[in-house]
């Protein structure tokens, strides 16, 4: 069972018309890419080379589990997050870690170094208002340059591996400053520099160590996505395309693939897309499914998935086993440790996911599989999601019950806003909104105003902001025990629950308003 406490969700998005094509043409340039044998590959500008129908070489069938290991020699995906590749020292350790498993034939997936993605986003925000002459002086740009050049230097590599990217990045920020806007599309292109650089550095370093490696940009490898910039979904064509390319390259010239996490190519726009924050986990599980590998390893900076966020409760301990459903609920309801969509390919491919600590490689970590023995399990994990927006919608009975529910959800569909958790009675609905679908602060209020205005045509609406959701993920067979304990704690702490729901997956409990008024307690299996 899973339980979650939600207080309030706030997120925003800018549907600003994409007007980056000129910028794209201006910025499209060729940058050196570290490849075995010193070859260079072309880096795309905002618009990538596109194939008809978005199918992108999707001719091979996805390999069944185990087939790829025989055919191409790959056995596992090893994904290293930003904290695992944050410096030259960390990159050395990760190379050593990979080489310490000589029996494995890994596909390596990397995130951007350290906080690079955050720095790129901040640099972009600053560029919008700083004016073109000042764009080169943005502090985050200097931090990014310094980190990558220092890493290259400390690893004894050639600065040309990243210098083209750094020049292009500066140009791009000047372009943003000139345009005075940062569209979602440009934002994705901007953050792609992080993964493009980290993978090139790491592949070059492995090559320097004599371990043949080949760098891949996911958007060239076959990751085809929807055109939902900043939060794109992976399309089915990705699996056969990725399998065909990795397999074919291995047969031609065996080398460890080092793939950019987080990135894809929009099937209509052919532009760089990103899979949402933390999306490299999804890249890893997608490759695992595409190649039918034995295991997907996700290397983090903690000893696996913990009983709760260690930043909230320092004594959190690792959870040894989870099911895909539990892990997905946990991630969806706010645990930062895994990307919410990342379990789907692993579940579909039946490939175990192991969450490991790159700072403590011998710790067993968490193994995530389809099923597990739940007999001794009570409460597995607690997740907090803050800054939740909640709506209480009470029917004015102008429509019948069916008509009322249908109308409410069609309003959300029309406005493109995702609903997170729902509790209903005959004449009312309480629901929380998914913050990840909303991006810009101004727009969120505008969008909320639109929702409320539409809903008020058929209902009395109360908008509650700055709520939180506590999700309790646990054994639904023990739900009464879990809820008894949870409510005792909440009562003792003066927290009033405003909404309760249990996920259909039967692994979660949910949200609360401010800390002393729980708006919703969600429970899932
Ligand atoms: N339930 C949880 N279990 C483990 N880590 C959690 C949990 N909730 C939040 N976290 C945070 O997630 C971080 C690990 O994920 P992440 O930052 O994505 O690592 P990386 O960037 O290296 O992939 C931890 O450092 C921890 O602070
Ligand atoms: N670099 C991206 C993608 C990612 O997955 O990062 P990490 O693995 O460090 O969470 C981000 O920061 O969102």
From TrEMBL:
GO terms for molecular function: aspartate kinase activity; ATP binding. Keywords: Amino-acid biosynthesis, ATP-binding, Kinase, Nucleotide-binding, Threonine biosynthesis, Transferase. One of its GO terms (biological process) is lysine biosynthetic process via diaminopimelate. It holds the Pfam family AA_kinase. Residues 393-471 form the ACT domain. It comes from the Eukaryota. It catalyses: L-aspartate + ATP = 4-phospho-L-aspartate + ADP. It is an enzyme of class 2 (transferase). Coiled coil: none annotated. GO terms for cellular component: chloroplast stroma; cytosol. The keyword Kinase applies. Pathway: Amino-acid biosynthesis; L-threonine biosynthesis; L-threonine from L-aspartate: step 1/5; Amino-acid biosynthesis; L-lysine biosynthesis via DAP pathway; (S)-tetrahydrodipicolinate from L-aspartate: step 1/4; Amino-acid biosynthesis; L-methionine biosynthesis via de novo pathway; L-homoserine from L-aspartate: step 1/3. InterPro entries: AceGlu_kinase-like_sf, ACT-like_dom_sf, ACT_dom, AK-LysC-like, AK1_ACT_1, Asp/Glu/Uridylate_kinase, Asp_kinase, AsparK_Bifunc_asparK/hSer_DH. Its EC number is 2.7.2.4. Belongs to the aspartokinase family. This is Aspartokinase. It comes from Aegilops tauschii subsp. strangulata (Goatgrass).
